[in-house]
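[#protein-structures] MJ: dropping Lipid A biosynthesis acyltransferase here for a structure pass
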Amino acid sequence: MARPAGPSLSADPRARARARQEPYLQGLVRALARWPLPVLHVLGGIIGWCIAQTPNRQRRNALINLALHRPDLGTRELIRLRNRSLSAFGRTYCEMGRLWLRPPADVLGLIRDVRGAELLRRDDGRGLIVLSPHLGAWELAGLYLAAQGPTTIFYKPQRRLDQLILEARRRSGAQLAPTTARGVRALVQGLAAGEYAGILPDQEPRADKGATFAPLFGLPALTMVLVNRLARKSGARVIFMFAERLPRARGYRIHCLPAPDGIDSDDDATAAAALNLGIERCIAVCPEQYLWPYRRFRRRPPGQGRVYIGSLRDYDAIERARRLLRAARSDADAR
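AK: finished. structure tokens for Lipid A biosynthesis acyltransferase:
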């Protein structure tokens, strides 16, 4: 059902522009959903290659993040990894309509292998908290989780295609809980009933309340503390899960990884550090498939400089990341 346009919508030119774009975006997504997966991956690779060839902020931000993640790599290796990651970035968004709109059985049939499936068992009757970073085909990971049993997924409403995304994520029976106090209560209730709770753990929280800074790629990142609080309140275990995209459009591999020790600590800083360590371990499996253009370090601790600024040139972006890491190490040594 379409939402009525209130005064704020008519007064906001950006909201009006989004409303005009919505039918075209939906039409594009529905058209791409009919294309074969190999064609979508070729198209996505071409789009990613084009992004990599033209100076732009996404390209720069991806390179800064990668230089933070892999300070051991030289300049040329980082640029090559950035270019591969942008090709994967293009494939992620080109395949999304197919993952959203095709029958669930068809989409789940693309899964060729599940590693660590035993971690998904709920033999003790307790719920299970499943953390799925923005790695590989995260929409497929959510669909697979919901196919394993009753699932509540923590959901951040989107500015575009929100209704389409909601319908897609619900089609295998998942319940969607908004990122509000009401949504948290839905997660708690689901875990108490022995269900799965799906959470994207690598989004920057909207506010300082319910978040703390913890290390990620060597820099402090504002990190949610919802996971450890849910785990303590419910007694649920915590694992990580993601869907790796296989080469040549051969399908996907699901990975389930145990959470690091301390993720359920009553100390928020300890738990947040363990959560970010778990994200890093997932990324290490297929680093080129992570969402590197995302500005994960947009919010900074007081007194620390901004991350995503400066020249769009590759060498300048890498040097900025290296300066940030040196400053972070100097701060750590001073403490």
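MJ: nice. Residues 10-334 form one domain.
AK: one more thing. The first strand starts at residue 111 and ends at 115.
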